[in-house]
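Here is an idea for our session: we take a single protein and study its fold together. To get us started, please write out a protein record for me. Once you have written the record down, we can walk along the chain together.
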Amino acid sequence: MSRNVMTDDLNTVLVRWQLTQAEHLSQTAIARLWRVRRADGTSAVLKLYKNATRGNEAAGAELLSAWSGRAVVKILENDGAAMLMQWLDGPSLGDIARSGHAKQADQLLCDTARSLHQNPISVRAPLCSLDDAFSLLPQLTYSTTCPTPLRKDMLRATAMANHLLATQPSPVPLHGDLHHDNVILTVTGPKAFDAKGYMGDPAFELANALRHPKGLPSHVRDLTRITQTTQLFAQALGVPCQRLAQWAAAKCALSISWRANGLLIQDDEADLLSLLVEQALATEC
């Protein structure tokens, strides 16, 4: 989408929702975000997607709305390619971890997950199944120069994903990307945002958080930390830590396959994948 089209859409949304003082915040692969001022004088975040399908966040806003009152951002408006969220003051859990308080950040993430999954909810919008989310993983092609250990770990993680998908318990709505940098600690507690909107095994919910926080590569790759945090996350969700460990390896492999864009040559998370696969194979709890 061209800059002019994006600008025109922004102006239209500002008028429609009576918003002013748009200040650009950031840009992702599928959306741009602005801090805006509402008619009542309060700040909010406007997220404008490049198209109305919203990519892999298609049902995220509906899920966050269904979780209203729990540890999530409040969705103020939601229409087509535009979404308006409350402004959250406070550091992200990733920022807390990067400031030297990683264990506190992990515990707050657990508190967030417990809030989201305290009891079942129903969501009107169709949520993406984990089967669909992982459909590209087994289709990955490996370059002849792809290191043998990476290929071996990817195949092991793919086998784990296939087993997990075939043995899922009753599916539940999932944030789908619940990690430290998608949660902000406000004066009223942690609030999650940027949900994918998945449906599936509850043990998947914190699997991706083992790849985080970003900016702490040595911490994330510490095998003792991986083992202890997996147990902590599993306890918070009330799921077997072996399944969570396997989902962590499977999700790391899926992220690698997304970046490979069909042909895997090498990846910066190859060493992390190896550690997660090792833990998943060793975990028996």
